[in-house]
Design goal:
Shape: globular
Structural class: alpha/beta
Largest sheet: 5 strands, mixed
Length: 188
């Protein structure tokens, strides 16, 4: 069985030696002045940029399970604010997708898998004691449309968010790349 890391390092050595990186050279500033919050779904890795006509360097892309902003002062929101204030992004797009693994996800099977892989009951008790509702934290969402609206609302109404930044919400079909507009940030 080949180890994933070994394959990556072998490929990377050839990539660098053959100067393959040269065709991807760009700056840290997004050419199209946007930051995108989207899902980590594997089907979107190449499809999303192609469906949006994005090339390397065109946008800041933040990937998170479900494209869901779950905490107003977590790393996702920090990344959005850094993109806006330091990296010259001027618009925010939240792009979730149909057939998402977070849609209808229940925390119980995840917790059971954690226990099967060695996370002790004592750890869960410590989290509960510390005020962390692990079931709420692991809960998915019931509607992709409502989830997008929720994330857009959290971003748009964040106390550190500039008022002049449009925040758009969309849902992409992971098979065809078709975009459905949920929130037009120019109108809100």
């Amino acid at each position: 069985m080949t180890k994933i890391l070994d394959e990556i390092l072998d490929f990377n050595q050839e990539f660098v030696e053959n100067h393959e990186y040269e065709k991807y050279e760009t700056t840290k500033f997004p050419n199209k002045k946007m930051v995108i919050l989207t899902c980590m779904d594997t089907r979107l890795l190449e499809l999303l940029p192609k469906a949006l006509n994005l090339g390397n360097g065109d946008a800041k892309i933040i990937k998170d399970a479900g494209a869901l902003l779950s905490h107003p002062f977590g790393s996702v929101m920090r990344s959005i604010l850094v993109a806006l204030y330091q990296l010259k992004a001027q618009e925010v797009l939240v792009i979730a997708h149909h057939d998402c693994g977070m849609l209808g996800m229940k925390p119980e099977p995840v917790i059971e898998n954690m226990k099967e892989r060695g996370i002790s009951e004592e750890t869960f008790k410590t989290l509960t004691y510390s005020g962390i509702d692990i079931e709420q934290w692991l809960h998915g969402f019931d509607s992709v449309t409502d989830s997008v609206k929720h994330s857009v609302d959290m971003i748009k109404n964040h106390p550190l968010m500039p008022n002049d930044v449009p925040v758009h919400g969309l849902v992409i079909d992971p098979k065809t790349g078709k975009l459905d507009l949920i929130v037009d940030g120019y109108k809100n």
